[in-house]
Design goal:
Number of strands: 10
CATH topology of the largest domain: TIM Barrel
Shape: elongated
Oligomer: single chain
Number of domains: 2
Number of helices: 17
Helix content: 40-55%
CATH class of the largest domain: Alpha Beta
Largest sheet: 8 strands, parallel, barrel
Strand content: 5-15%
Length: about 425
């Protein structure tokens, strides 16, 4: 039986029990399950200087399916090439090669819906800005016109037997009264199956997402609410968490947060937060995270920052003697991961739980451990001199030392 205690303390992680106290959770309106709608394939093509070939998109789609995402989005309207990619993905889905739903993106035109239909997809995501000021500036259209046009296109898609997700973006800058009229109309008259709201420029606070999701759910209580967001203010993982706390059943994410400008909510970050910190089922196979992120980084030529949460190199790397000493002591207990955010095995990363680099933070613990592995014995004085030389060299290099550089220092000290 799952209890609160073994949600925050398992054989792979030790989290804060305060995440589970009633005072924290009493205001949560969590769905029973959250579905991950992955937008990597579409948003990557809008990320500056990223271009994926069709065969690379297929490879990523297979990895996303293995990861366990519920649906995969691609921009079929972008070009003939993208339409063909979406066709192939739909064929793979129908043939059972992938389980994830394939959802082409369309703008609010019947022409785009027709392109989605040509791919053979049975779903479509109709996306359009609904900020009245923006729409007026771009299309010279008033609020009434926005509602009429969007409702008409959604109705057209429904008449063609498509499942419709209405993504009304720039939601967080649209007047609340207008949003209510529009969302009620596109659902009750247009027939939209799901409604996706979006913090398109990353302006909203996490609590604001909770507030707005609850508002939208109160207007169309039988309609699942999805949430899309960008990371301009560095808040997007928290934003998605806030949306789920408010009851959002679907979140839009991308691997390594790749996307327009500074990107979207990272699939790997959101999945880990929902699974470990909120305890919400997502269907994501966490052990596939690391390999999927590495694959997307390679194919997009978009390196993962060393200090990126969840999959960054620095998550399980240290050059601090004090940290290594602590980890060594704790690794002998029944909670060897006590100083870690989680055991790296959770995300499918092999190797040591905590890898060591030789840098300016080097101490005798690190040096003695390295010497022991090399089968070399040194006195306390020699070990201390090696430590000092490693530090001096690291300052000069402004980086960590290689094993060869360390071995040269050891040789020079021991031969004195």
């Amino acid at each position: 039986m799952m209890t609160n205690e073994n949600r925050w303390l398992t054989d792979k992680w030790w989290l804060s029990p305060y995440n589970w106290v009633d005072e924290v959770r009493k205001e949560f309106t969590l769905p029973e399950r959250v579905y991950i709608h992955d937008v990597t394939l579409r948003e990557a093509m809008q990320s500056p200087r990223v271009s994926l070939r069709p065969e690379e998109k297929i490879r990523i789609a297979k990895a996303l399916d293995k990861l366990g995402v519920d649906s995969i989005e691609n921009g079929a309207y972008m070009s003939e090439v993208e339409k063909e990619v979406t066709k192939e993905l739909v064929k793979m889905q129908r043939g059972g090669e992938i389980k994830a739903k394939v959802i082409p993106l369309a703008h609010w035109t019947e022409q785009d819906v027709d392109i989605a239909l040509e791919t053979g997809a049975d779903r479509v995501l109709i996306s359009q800005t609904v900020n009245p000021w923006i729409v007026r500036a771009l299309y010279n259209m008033d609020e009434k016109g926005i509602i009429e046009k969007l409702t008409k296109v959604i109705s057209y898609a429904k008449r063609n037997r498509l499942f419709v997700i209405a993504q009304v973006y720039d939601t967080y800058r649209a007047p609340l009264e207008f949003l209510e009229r529009m969302i009620k109309t596109i659902v009750l008259e247009g027939g939209a199956d799901n409604v996706a709201i979006s913090d398109t420029r990353g302006f909203a606070l996490p609590w604001t997402a909770t507030y707005l999701v609850r508002k939208v759910k109160s207007w169309v209580p039988q309609t699942p609410i999805e949430h899309h967001g960008h990371n301009d203010y560095g808040l997007v993982t928290a934003l998605m968490t806030g949306a789920v706390v408010g009851g959002a059943e679907v979140v839009h994410t991308s691997i390594n947060c790749i996307g327009e400008r500074v990107g979207n909510a990272a699939t790997e970050e959101v999945a880990m937060v929902l699974a470990l910190l909120l305890g919400v089922k997502t269907g994501i196979h966490l052990e596939q995270i690391y390999s999927t992120c590495q694959l997307v980084a390679e194919l997009t030529k978009h390196p993962i920052a060393r200090n990126k949460p969840i999959v960054g190199e620095n998550m399980f790397l240290s050059g601090s003697g004090q940290v290594i000493w602590r980890h060594g002591k704790l690794s002998q207990t029944d909670r060897p991961f006590a100083d870690m955010a989680f055991d790296p095995q959770v995300i499918g990363k092999g190797g040591e739980m905590l890898e060591v680099v030789l840098g300016v933070g080097c101490g005798k613990t690190i040096v003695k451990d390295k010497l022991q592995k090399m089968g070399i014995r040194a006195s306390e004085e020699q070990a201390e001199e090696i430590v000092q030389r490693v530090k001096e060299e690291a300052y000069i290099l402004k980086w960590s030392l290689t094993d060869a550089q360390f071995e040269e220092i050891v040789k020079n000290v021991l031969e004195k």
